[in-house]
Structures are given as C-alpha cells and as structure tokens.
Amino acid sequence: MKCPVVTLNSGMTISEVYAAQQRIAGRVRRTPLMSSETLSQRVGTNVHLKLELFQKTGSFKPRGAFNKMLAGVPAGSRVVAVSGGNHAQAVAYVARCLGIHATIAMPRNTPANYLEATRGYGAEVVLAADISEAFEVMARMEREGAIPVHPFSDPLVVAGQATVGLEILEDLPNVTDIVVSIGGGGLAGGIGLVAKTANPAIRVWGVETEGADAMAKALAAGKPVQMPAITSIAKTLGAPEVSWLTLELIQRYVESVTVVPDVEAVEALDFILERAKVMPEPAAACTLAAAERLRDNFTKDSQVVLVMCGGNTTLDAINSYPRANANRAG
C-alpha cells in the first residue's frame, strides 16, 4: 500500500522528540544495533537489527509511557490504558516507577504471559470482551477522572517512541532504509518523522500482518477504519483502528505499508531465532518478511535496519504458530 504525501495537521516536530529523549534519559535502555551477515545474505544487502526487544518490559513501549507520564501525570494520579500486551506492561511498569496507580483494560483473549506480567508490575487489570470494548472501558474511566495513556493517539507517547529513530541515526548515520512494524502507527510514524527530518533520502517502510492491517485499510480509505476483528497471531499489532495523528504521520513520512501473512512472519521469526540468536515476537519478525518483499528497492550498498520492536512471546506460543510446513528452524 503506497502512502500518499499529504499536508500534515498533527503539528508534531523533531524538537518534541529531542525533548522526549532528554526527559526519559536514564529511565530506558539504549538498545543495541546489531549487523547480521546471514540476514544480509538473505535480503541481498546490508541488514542491521535494532534490538528494542531488549528494552525494559521487552518492547519499545516504555519510551512513550515514560515521556507521557513524566510530562503530564503527577505522582499519585490515576492513569488508564488499553493494550493487548506490550503497552500494558509498559504503562504498568512506568506507573510503578513513578508512584502512579494504573488500570489497564485488556481483551479476554490476551495471552497469559502478558496478563501475568502486567499484574506483576502492580497494575489493576480489567478484562474486556475484545479490544474495542477495552477502549470503551478506557473512555469511561477517563470520564471518571483517570488520565488516559493512549497507546498511539498521543503526541507525547509518539515522541517517546520516536527516540528509537534518534538512536538508529546516532549508531548508523549512513542508514538508507528502516523497516518497522505498525500497530497503531506511533512507532513507525515517529521514526519516519525523525528520519525524514535528518535526511529526506532515508526511506521508512511500514509493515503489518494480515488480519491486523488497520493502517493499510486506513490508507486505502483515506481515513481511520474500524477493524471488525483482529485475526492475526501478531496480537501486539492489533489496533482496532488507527488515529488521525498516526495516519497523517504515516502518509507523510512512510514510503509504503507492506502486509504479510502470518506464516511469513513466523518463518522469519524461526530464521532470526536460529541465525541471530534473539527471539522476536511475530509483530517484530514480520519486518524481515517485508524486507524480502521489498528487496528490489535496495542495492548492495543499502544500509537497512529492521526494528525488532518486541520479544514478548513464549516457547509454547512459538510452537503453536502456523507454518507452511511441519519443519521449524531451531
């Protein structure tokens, strides 16, 4: 899905990302950027992994949660968030660090490891029938006085996520392409803002999985579109609807959005686990599947970064994922 260039109304600027970087310094890990000869041979160019799965709580999400709560949520306040997993853990962890009470609305089908981790960080979990109902819970609690920490429709959250882009540029100044997953679009849109501001020639490519492709549908419609259901195994990409903020960021700063089937994301996960010795979740591994589809856009001199946005999965889950055949790497 090609992203049209539009007039951006969100008003976000790179200065907000630099402010976020200063605000969250010392609170989050500066994750490594690792080159991979095997992945480079597979894609036909120079491939690097931004290992955000080594971030606290196992994903990039604490960056946005810390920036939001440090900037606008007083200690002792009450926050509410919605998540199918990674954002839940991040908000719970950050709230505990800052002395803030957190309630997280989560779908009933959320994997047990996400529920246990979120509760383990001290948050109250409210189970909803699905992700749409979870957003209704958040809206109700906001009316009752809780401060919402939206997973992507908040400039402070997006600015925090965008600090991933600053680190990529610092570690690989000659980066040419960044491939990044899209759930609600805050990470990809934020990285796009950073990359294009630094060098308009850098290309950012978005990725979704079939059944969790709210951004591709929004791009086709020219407006946010409600997903009837999330059917992909990549539950952390399962936003029921993107926001106008993230849609505009993707339209302006991202080249295109590639939608890959679950089986390709899982095959990529197996390969990364076997060869790079890190275990991403399908929502991260799908960037390799997309890079292979995009390979005609790269040259042998390209410097391509795949953002490993999260690694919150389990061995049992990996063994249950759909595969094209019975053989599995590793």
Textual characterization of the structure:
It is a single chain. The chain has 13 helices and ten strands. By secondary structure, it is α/β, with parallel strands linked by helices. The protein has two domains: 14-59 and 155-320, Rossmann fold, CATH 3.40.50; 74-148, Rossmann fold. The strands form two sheets. Strands 1-2-10-7-8-9 form a six-stranded mixed beta sheet, sandwiched between helices. It has a four-stranded parallel beta sheet with strand order 5-4-3-6. Strand 3, helix 4 (86-98) and strand 4 form a beta-alpha-beta unit. Helix 3 packs across helix 4, helix 3 (62-72) crosses helix 7 (155-171) and helix 8 (186-198) packs parallel to helix 10. It is globular, with a radius of gyration of 18 Å. It starts with 13 loop residues before the first helix and ends in a 10-residue tail after the last helix. Mean pLDDT is 93; it is low at 4-8.
Structural class: alpha/beta
Specify the overall morphology: globular
The helix/strand order is HEHEHEHEHEHEHEHEHHEHHEH
Which topology of the largest domain does CATH recognise? Rossmann fold
Distance between the termini: 33 Å
Radius of gyration: 18 Å
Percentage beta strand: 5-15%
Sequence of strands across the biggest β-sheet? 1-2-10-7-8-9
Please report the number of helical segments.
13
CATH class of the largest domain: Alpha Beta
Question: Judging by the overall fold, what is the CATH architecture of the largest domain?
Answer: 3-Layer(aba) Sandwich
Overall mean pLDDT:
93
Largest sheet: 6 strands, mixed
Approximately how much helix is present in the residues? 40-55%
Catalogue the unreliable spans.
Answer: 4-8
Number of strands: 10
Domain module tally: 2
